[in-house]
Design a protein that fits this description.
104 residues; mainly alpha; two-stranded antiparallel ribbon; 73% helix; rod-shaped
Length: 104
């Protein structure tokens, strides 16, 4: 009777271990497929980021171009004109700023 009881307990332990093994394999396959999906999604997100950055750069360039054209139009409509003689400021040896004119 005792031998039969030990045999039944061994049978239950074997079934429990086989079930745990199969669950482990299933969990491994699930997490492996999940990691592959996340890698693919990460690559797609990286491509989307690159595309969006390109679009942002294009829009920034268009904005700067539009801003300069608007500034030029506003300056001419307000009566401003282009200056032909320009004044430059150069740093002197004594670390003071000096006004330097081209005509002088």
């Amino acid at each position: 009777m005792k031998v039969k009881r030990i045999h039944i307990e061994d049978h239950y332990i074997t079934i429990a271990l086989a079930t745990a093994f199969l669950l482990g394999i299933a969990a491994y396959m699930y997490f492996l497929s999940l990691s592959v999906v996340h890698v693919v999604m990460r690559k797609e997100a990286g491509q989307n980021i690159t595309t969006i950055r390109s679009e942002i750069a294009y829009l920034e360039a268009a904005y700067i171009e539009a801003h300069h054209s608007i500034s030029s139009r506003v300056a001419t409509t307000e009566g401003f004109s282009e200056i032909r003689s320009k004044i430059f400021i150069r740093e002197s040896q004594s670390d003071n700023l000096v006004l330097l004119r081209q005509n002088e």
